[in-house]
Amino acid sequence: VAAKICDLCGKPEPRALVFCTADEDVTNDIARTEQWFLSFGVRAETVNICSEAPADLAALRRKIMTADIIWFVGGRTECLLHKLQDYYLFAPLWAAYWNGTVMAGSGTGAIVLSFAGYNDFKDEGRRDLIDGIGMVDAYFCPHSQDDAWRGFDERLGEELAYIGRAEVPETAWAQEDGTMVIFRNEEEEPEVKVLRPGSRVYRYKRTGGSWVKEEFR
Question: Which residue did the predictor score with more confidence, 202 or 210?
């Protein structure tokens, strides 16, 4: 994954900004993430906004807008989104995106980058859609190989009620673990990388009053 992200970045020594805040700022996880990127020649700096406020928000916003890669880890989506909102980081993230920064994430990270993602609200014991930042104009479901996440199809069907009353995406994606979907722009078809043999990616297309689901290759 990191090697492909570096290729997309196209820079010999890219700088990565890693948000390790989707659950809590765990020292071992932060060190492991930094080492993972370093093994691919990427200078990674972790952003820890879960347990304490950033010492210098202006500096953090500048780092976001000048990073070559921004990576969001997995964990609790609602926690990460709340922190990003609390510190008014949506605007600099969008600025970085429009400036060509490679935005990436796994699980929660992918949900955050989507229009809305199917999320497990651990504190409430339920699963439902949660609004993301929206760099990818699509609904998204991670871990779709697990039975617990298969309510996404039914929940996605309920979204059809909003057609005509709001601008809602015409596509949705469900990824099994061990896959990677790369979105370059709205004109190009996404690229799928299967990192674990047998893992699959599904794309849904909204056609009239229904969704058509197909395995995407």
Answer: 202
